[in-house]
Structures are given as structure tokens and as C-alpha cells.
Amino acid sequence: MRDATVSPFVRVRGAREHNLKNVDVDIPRDALVAFTGVSGSGKSSLAFSTLYAEAQRRYLESVSPYARRLFHQMEVPEVDEIEGLPPAVALQQQRGSPTTRSSVGSVTTLSNLLRMLYSRAGDYPPGQPHLDAESFSPNTLEGACPRCHGLGRIHEVTEASMVPDPSKTIRERAVAAWPMAWGGQNLRDILISLGIDVDTPWRELPKKVRDWILFTDEQPQVPVYPGWSHDEIQRAIRRKIEPAYMGTFSSAKRHVTHSFATTQSAMMKKRAARFMIGRDCPLCHGKRLRREALSVPYARRQMVNRGSACKWPEHTR
């Protein structure tokens, strides 16, 4: 039984370690407590640099000076007061680095333990073979949803996102998702060589033509005569007049997705993102895992992956 004189909370007052700004918080004792927040919010500063450091300091005060020399002691934390801290606090931590799947820099081993729990003690549907722990991780080939690749969200381009003003013509840069300056002009000149009307309002072009311009995977290479009309270009080709250069067409979708995935320029990535629409993956519904893993509950709860951690869905708590 709990001693009635012992506070049910660890009371922290005036925590100022690293990026903490005089934080006051009451943390439940004898409970599994998670510190959550955006990257840089001070989770590790509170859990490790404050609570763990103070617990270690108090523990080392109880051992002999000789034994104390054998430990690597953390510095005294910047905090006004900590009450109700248990005699010993043991924490495990792994250091990570930001990735596309997580902006978290430090994670605990709880995720791995949960995945092992589901793989060994989960309630498997009849006939489904048992999965290993890796199958419950969205960061592995075995576990990641094949549609969103374990991200939980997909990013798509649509006609409306790439052509915000359909009253404009192609010459007037109706296809806003195309590159600016020469790159966009090059693509417009290629369309003229292909015989596509660049002076008709976008909305009046046939849908088949609009879809091809925006979404085709084809990359035809055609002669480019900048500033010439399509008829003039056809006559030049018949007369075997040398073009200014050979241009390769690229659809608006191809340009946006390729730029977003490969560019090293933050500015170009930000511009490409303007034309993309993000939504929960329709296959895993944002849960990041394959269907096989999602079909295995434990205690009637389904594994849900957010960031680098695994946790219960809100409605089952």
C-alpha cells in the first residue's frame, strides 16, 4: 500500500535546464508517464537533464566517496525545487536524428517493446501467419504501408492545385506549377511545336489535352523554334531548317513531384509543396502500417504509429 505521507506527484518548480523557461510541473508517481511535444520543446531537458540528473545526484550522495568516483555524475540541474522524487530513477535513451518520418531527436525503447508485444502476444486472425517485430514498424520494408511508404500521408497534385486560374491561357502561364523564367518558357515553346493552342483559355481546352499536359508520363523530344507559330515550325521542319535546340517535354505533375523529391534547394522544395495536397493515406488511413500488421490487435487495441512512437488510438483509451 502507498504511504499516505508520500506525495502522489513529483513536483518540479523552476526548471531552467537548457531550453526550459522556469517550468513548473506535477508528474504522477507510480505511473507510466510520457513527455510529448514538438522538437526542441524541452522533453529531454526535463526528463533526462533535470529529473534523471537530480535522482542520480541524490543517489550518489548516499554512497561512499570511493564508490562515487566510479560513476560518471551528471551536473547539478538548473531547478529551484524537486519534491517527491523516488530514490532511484532509471531511464533508457537512444539518440537519433531527424528524418522524413520523424523530427524527434531522442526516443525511448518503448516502441521496440510494443512491437515485440504485438508480434508475440497479438490476437492473430485465423489463417494469418505470425509476423516478426519488424512487421509492426513503419520504418521497415516489412511493416511500412506500401501506398504511403510508412509516412501515413500522401501528397497529390490536382488540376486545381496546378492551374489556380483556368481563365488564363498557357502563354499567360496558366500552368503555375511549371518552373519560372526560361524553364517554363521552354515547356510552352515545346507545346507550340506539338501543335497545342497556347492562346486559348485553359478551361476551354479539351479535357484530354489538359490531362496530357498535366499528368502524362510521356516525355517527347521535339524541335524548338522560340517565338515561332506552329505553322511556321511545320514549314521549317519541312524545309529542314535547323531548330534552336531539341526540347524534352515534362508534365506539370512530373516537374512538381520530381522537384519535391530531389531538389536540395529549400526554396524550390517549398515552391513545389505549394502545388501538392496532403491527406491521410487511403490504404492505411494514416496509421503507417501494412494491413497485415493492422489486423493484429492486442487487448482489443490496434497498433498505431505516430512519429517515432507507437501508441493506443484515442478512442480505445
From TrEMBL:
Key words of the record: ATP-binding, Cytoplasm, DNA damage, DNA excision, DNA repair, DNA-binding, Excision nuclease, Metal-binding, Nucleotide-binding, Repeat, Zinc, Zinc-finger
One Pfam family recorded for the sequence: UvrA_DNA-bind
Gene3D superfamilies, per database record: ABC transporter ATPase domain-like (1.10.8.280), ABC transporter ATPase like domain (1.20.1580.10), P-loop containing nucleotide triphosphate hydrolases (3.40.50.300)
Domain UvrA DNA-binding, chain residue ranges per copy: 161-271
Major location category of this protein: cytoplasm
Keyword Repeat: yes
Location(s), subcellular: Cytoplasm
Similarity comment: Belongs to the ABC transporter superfamily. UvrA family.
The protein, known as: UvrABC system protein A
